[in-house]
Amino acid sequence: MKVRITLKRSLIGQTPKARETVRSLGLKKINSSTEREINPMIQGMLNKVEHLVDIEEIK
After folding, report:
1. Residue 17: which domain range?
2. What percent of the chain has pLDDT over 90?
3. Which of 6, 33, 35, 53 is deepest in the core (most CB within 10 A)?
4. According to the 3-state scheme, what is the secondary structure of 2-58?
5. Average pLDDT value for residue range 18-24
6. What is the pLDDT of residue 59?
7. Which pLDDT score is estimated for 45?
8. pLDDT, tens digit (0-9, with 9 covering 90-100), for 33-44
9. What is d(CA 4, CA 17) in angstroms, rounded to the nearest whole number?
């Protein structure tokens, strides 16, 4: 299953770990998005930063 991940909130004031996680997902600026295949590693990253990103499933 593929998902589109979009950064919706600013990284200002976030912990360094959360910032690194967002960068490793391939997101840089607000409203930037990337498409990823879901696997346990990506799912764990999304769980950590779910308050910063918007996740939508791609058919």
Report:
1. 2-58
2. 98
3. 53
4. EEEEEECCCCCCCCHHHHHHHHHCCCCCCCCEEEEECCHHHHHHHHHCCCCEEEEEE
5. 97
6. 84
7. 96
8. 999 999 999 999
9. 22
Structure tokens at 46: 């999304």
Give the domain CATH number at 23.
3.30.1390.20
If one counts the domains in the chain, the total is 1
Walk across the sheet containing 2-7 and list its strands. 33-37, 2-7, 53-58
Structure tokens that stand for 57 in this block: 């499933």
Contacts of 45 (CB under 8 A, 6+ apart): 21, 24, 25
**CB atoms near residue 50 (< 10 Å):** 10
